[in-house]
């Protein structure tokens, strides 16, 4: 009887869904810098609750999260949050539009701004983000093709969650044989 319970528990644990999250490196290998078309970078990507945006930048840039009005006018006078550490990981924890810009003079007007839409996480396994190369212009009028690797990387939630599930399942099997 104990073996049957342990086996049933093992099957149940392996069948439980696992939490997935994706880290999106904004601008791919170009990072958060001048001369990148962030509208093109974001197009074709589906951002979900549980994903993260990773901004990599040098000391000549910052990241401000702002509202739609600030995005439209390139103003960070009503900043929601400011990031200055050069490697900012921003959790996408709610659905809706999110807006970001570089508050340094002239940077937003030069294209250093990003608008995304965050969708609800699905209950099924998400598809891997598109691996098509993004286009990053070297100047606003001269695009060049960026053939870097895709910017989305698993966040590690899969490994941790799967590891815990396997640990619990293995413990149940061991306990089943002891009883």
UniProtKB/TrEMBL annotation:
Highest taxon listed in the record's lineage: Eukaryota
CDD domains listed in its UniProt record: Phytocyanin (cd04216)
Domain (Phytocyanin): residue spans on this chain: 22-120
One Pfam family per UniProt: Cu_bind_like
Compositional bias (Low complexity): 122-151
The keyword Transmembrane is assigned to this record: yes
Keywords: Copper, Electron transport, Glycoprotein, Membrane, Metal-binding, Signal, Transmembrane, Transmembrane helix, Transport
Region (Disordered): 121-156
Ranges annotated as spanning the membrane: 156-178
CC annotations in GO: plasma membrane
Signal peptide: 1-21
UniProt-recorded name of the protein: Phytocyanin domain-containing protein
